[in-house]
Design a protein that fits this description.
With 137 residues, the protein is of the alpha+beta class. The protein contains one helix and eight strands. Helix content is 15%, strand content 51%. Strands 1, 4, 5, 7 and 8 form a five-stranded mixed β-sheet that branches. It has a three-stranded antiparallel β-sheet with strand order 2-3-6, with no helix packed on it.
């Protein structure tokens, strides 16, 4: 009986030890902001209506995929950027591709909208933007 208990205890210890080696708590992905290549905006907005803006961005290789749109607003300014998911698990293909994303703007203010589309960082590490004003009629 004592020998059987030792075998079971040794077996349980081995399972716990081996399974703890399998738990990799490191994430297998990270997030990055991607520069917006182009923004297609309407010539003007109509107050109280909805309109669509399209942005184009480039996925650098097969490990990148679109995650979501970063859209922050304060007063009349809208900051827009693309957040991408970068997989760290697989070997990446060299599949560079440009994609387009469209989003709806609810025109709820009578003042002109200032859109700041993120273009990346300059040589000093500062964020750079393309600024486009869309008047409201």
């Amino acid at each position: 009986m004592k020998m059987m208990f030792k075998k079971i205890l040794t077996f349980c210890f081995a399972i716990v030890t081996l399974s703890s080696c399998l738990n990799n708590n490191e994430p297998s992905y990270t997030f990055e902001f991607l520069p917006i290549d182009e923004a297609i905006v309407p010539a003007s907005f109509k107050f109280g209506e909805r309109d669509t803006i399209a942005i184009k961005y480039t996925l650098n290789n097969g490990c990148y995929s679109f995650d979501n749109l970063y859209y922050e607003y304060q007063d009349t300014v809208r900051v827009v950027a693309v957040r991408a998911l970068l997989s760290l698990e697989n070997a990446c293909t060299l599949n560079i591709r440009q994609e387009e994303y469209k989003f709806v703007v609810n025109v709820t203010q009578k003042e002109d909208y200032l859109f700041k589309f993120w273009k990346g960082k300059d040589s000093n590490g500062e964020d750079t933007f393309e600024e486009i004003v869309v008047p409201v009629n």
